[in-house]
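During the no-cost extension, the postdoctoral fellow (Dr. R.K.) reprocessed legacy sequence entries with the updated structure-token encoder. One reprocessed record is reproduced below for audit purposes.
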Amino acid sequence: MTKAKSPHEYVFKVWVKGARRVSRTLAFRGDQTLDDLHEAVFQAFDRFDPHLYTFYFPKMIPKRGVRPANVTEYAPPFMLEDPGPFPCPRLLDATKSRLDDIRLHVGQEFEYLFDFGDSWVHEIEVLSIGDVQAGRKYPALLEKKGTSPPQYERVADDEEDASEMAG
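Re-encoded structure tokens follow.
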């Protein structure tokens, strides 16, 4: 049985932590999941190499394995099977976590960590919650500010070196 599409639209502003000039504004239906948000951010920031990810509510990136007790973490389902060296007692499945069910509110901020090795930390703010827009395909990229940073610095350096040699 397929669930009915949600009448709610959630609009998020996403930026790489420490670089607010580079941001993306994305819209989703309430029946879409945090995994859908992950995929849309991946595409919106021109990423090409998939990696693990997690969302933190409230904002919190763990340092040295210390995690406040009130943090809820949403991750891919296989991370629930093997949470690694720093298990989170409040770890939920991002693929089953619908936006309508998370109890988001306008102005709320949370964090998204992509690639545990390179640690791409993003801050996400809920800009608005309203009605789904007729004719809009979700998720929707509403605004793109700034150039996406390269996923891997050495790839950008190698491309630059190659263009200098060719020129």
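Strands lie at 8-16, 19-29, 53-57, 72-75, 91-93, 109-114, 120-131, 140-145. Helices lie at 34-44, 77-81, 153-166. The remaining legacy entries will be reprocessed before the final report is submitted.
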